[in-house]
Design goal:
Oligomer: single chain
Shape: elongated
CATH superfamily of the largest domain: Winged helix-like DNA-binding domain superfamily/Winged helix DNA-binding domain
CATH topology of the largest domain: Arc Repressor Mutant, subunit A
Order of helices and strands: HHHHHHHHHH
Number of helices: 10
Number of domains: 2
Number of strands: 0
Distance between the termini: 18 Å
Radius of gyration: 21 Å
CATH architecture of the largest domain: Orthogonal Bundle
CATH class of the largest domain: Mainly Alpha
Strand content: under 5%
Structural class: mainly alpha
Largest sheet: none
Length: 246
């Protein structure tokens, strides 16, 4: 689209159009939000501390599949992910006496999982600097949108010259097709690990910002930057695929 196109310019500081990844992402393996329908945390933790085996199996059934998906962000294959989750459940049993309820049970579970998954991943590939993994984003100078898509030398400088694609007219069947979902998954898997983790938890698993920050022990500002960069990259990949330019 050229600078003489008939649409009203939009300033580049407007937020990127949202990408509803959750609508097109692979469905959760258990068919619902992990942990839905569980008793109140205090009731469940009390039962677990009393050694209630049924309560523990309820917890496993509610969260095991989600923990495997989370582990797969860090480790190379499902077999290793299952090992990490088994280590996590052992950690839960051994650490129940120290659980004080300052965070949700789900947050506590995922913190145990991510710590073990990072340790395992570090053993599998020593090139990943986990000691600084959740530090400041190392792509802070990288634009999230191609600068060539903005005007630079007319009265509408820094406004869009080429707007993001509008997919509202595309058939729903194409947006939800297996091929489209595969492209979304591939785009997410290609992200840096920190961005991939945040976007998976927020837009695939459906976690709140507060839950992500608590589980990964990162600030709200860091989480917001990582999510923005991840969404922008996935949208760019999806745009190339749907527009036939990639």
């Amino acid at each position: 689209m050229t600078a003489s196109a008939s649409f009203e310019p939009v300033h580049r500081t407007d937020p990127n159009p949202p990408l509803a990844i959750a609508a097109s992402a692979p469905p959760l393996a258990d068919g619902h939000t992990a942990g839905a329908g569980l008793p109140d945390d205090a009731i469940l933790v009390d039962a677990l501390k009393r050694g209630d085996e049924a309560a523990f199996m309820t917890l496993v059934q509610a969260y095991h599949a989600m923990l495997v998906r989370l582990a797969l962000i860090y480790v190379p294959d499902r077999a290793v992910a299952e090992d990490v989750v088994q280590e996590t459940w052992l950690g839960v049993l051994n650490g129940l006496g120290r659980f004080e309820g300052r965070s949700s049970l789900k947050t506590w579970l995922c913190r145990i999982l991510t710590n073990r998954a990072r340790t395992r991943a570090q053993k599998e590939s020593r090139s990943i600097p986990f000691s600084s993994f959740w530090g400041p984003d190392d792509e802070h100078d990288e634009p999230t949108v191609d600068p060539s898509r903005f005007r630079t030398s007319d009265p509408y400088e820094d406004h869009w010259s080429t707007r993001p694609s509008d997919w509202s007219d595309l058939p729903e069947e194409r947006l939800l097709s297996d091929e489209t979902q595969a492209n979304i998954r591939a785009a997410i898997e290609a992200l840096p690990l920190n961005q991939r983790t945040v976007i998976t938890l927020r837009d695939v698993e459906g976690w709140s910002s507060a839950d992500v920050c608590a589980s990964l022990e990162i600030s709200e500002a860091n989480q917001r930057v990582l999510l923005h960069r991840a969404r922008a990259k996935v949208r760019q990949a999806l745009e190339r695929y749907l527009d036939g330019t990639g």
